[in-house]
Amino acid sequence: MESKSKLKKEILPFSLILIASVFRLIPHPPNFTPLTAIALFGGATFENRILAIFVPFFAMLISDAIIGFHSTMWAVYISFGLIALVGGAYLRKQNKFKNILIATLASSFSFYLITNFAVWLTSGMYPHTIAGLIQCYIFGLPFYRTTTLELFGISIVGDLVFTLSLFGAYRLAEKMLPSTLTKY
């Protein structure tokens, strides 16, 4: 019985995160990545908070080592750490569709705010004034959307697609695992 519990609580989420991480390495539209989904899902599914943050960080670190690092990576990692905490606090006990949708949209928006704030703070491209910060957020919008999905923003669409896919795959596997495991 304990092996079923461990499988569902640790191995299954880890496996799904690993699979989702691969999508970051294959060709994809700019900013259409599974990172927000991985952080939310990790936070929601791992009972151990350290594991909930470490597994998504590790997945990002591996893919960043392949893709490359940049000067505001610290802000990206802070963002995803906070997103993992949101997943743990908000979705662990109530991961209904509405809550997943709200958490995903809030996470996507907070990532945009935090990472663009880091660009404003450290890049030297904008004056360190309120007007400079606003300008940074406005100039950051093209990175948040593309011409084909202007209204929705490709980052938000990617976050929603991957988050709903991870939570959906987990629910499906949860339903299938007990019957599969009892056969063996």
Shape: elongated
Q: What is the number of helical segments per DSSP (H or I, 4+ residues)? A: 7
Helix content: over 70%
Task: Report the count of strand segments.
Answer: 0
Number of domains: 1
**Overall pLDDT metric:** 84
Biggest sheet features? none
Radius of gyration: 18 Å
Can you write the helix and strand succession as a string?
Answer: HHHHHHH
Strand content: under 5%
- Taking the alpha carbons of the first and last residues, their distance comes to 13 Å
Give the class from helix and strand content and strand pairing: mainly alpha
Low-pLDDT residue spans: 146-151, 180-184
Please give the structural blueprint.
Elements lengths: L1 H24 L9 H11 L3 H19 L5 H19 L5 H26 L7 H15 L9 H30 L1
Helix pairs in contact: 1-2, 1-3, 1-7, 2-3, 2-4, 2-7, 3-4, 4-5, 5-6, 5-7
What distinguishing features does this structure have?
184 residues; single chain; mainly alpha; 7 helices; disordered C terminus
How would you sum up this structure, described in words?
The protein is mainly alpha-helical. The chain has one domain. It contains seven helices and no strands. The two termini are 13 Å apart.
Summarize the structure.
The protein has 184 residues and is an all-alpha fold. The chain is 78% helix and 0% strand.
